[in-house]
Amino acid sequence: MRRTTRAGRRGSAPTGSRAARRLVASAALAYLANCLWGTAVAVRVIRTRKLRVVHHGLFVVTATLTGVAATTPVWTRDRSTLFLLPALVPLAVAPRTNPRSGAHWRVAVAAAPSYLGALLARR
Fold first, then answer.
1. Are the beta carbons of 17 and 76 closer than 8 angstroms?
2. Closest Cα to residue 117, out of 73, 67, 70, 63?
3. What's the Cα-to-Cα distance from 87 to each of 34, 67, 84, 91, 93, rounded to whole Å?
4. Hey, how many other C-beta atoms are within 10 angstroms of the C-beta on 74?
5. Distance, CA of 96 to CA of 41 (rounded, Å)
């Protein structure tokens, strides 16, 4: 029987890393949850008098997962996560915009194409 390796060399990282795919999916899911929570607060479906920290916590999780996922080409050969690099800019700008202005949600939505591209590229 003949053994074949996916990456071509023994001991090298696989081309389509399972960890990278999971990180992309997790970052996209966290982004979606954060956008949904922020939208629910903006349209006053959810009152956040005592739950204001939820949106901030979701943002920290989203930014952390996106940052970690964007670094996976360093330790794997999976390049699909490079689509997440542009998302780091809106994630850096969003906390500095006024949440009651239209700029806040526009900046947040600007990251959506990056997440969509990363999800589509991971196939």
1. yes
2. 70
3. 14, 9, 5, 6, 10
4. 7
5. 18
d(CA 98, CA 77): 39
How would DSSP label each residue in 62-87? HHHHHHHHHTHHHHSS--GGGGGGGG
pLDDT in tens, 83-116: 999 999 999 999 899 888 889 989 999 999 999 9
Which tens digits make up the pLDDT trace of 19-40? 888 999 999 999 999 999 988 8
What is the DSSP secondary structure assignment for residue 61, as one 8-state letter?
H
Q: pLDDT digits over 51-70, tens only?
A: 778 888 999 999 999 999 99
The confidence score (pLDDT) of residue 112 equals: 95
Residue whose C-alpha is closest to residue 85's, from 67, 98, 103, 104: 67
Distance CA 79, CA 16 (A): 8
Backbone CA torsion sign across 63, 69, 70, 74: positive
Q: How far apart are CA 75 and CA 91, in angstroms?
A: 23
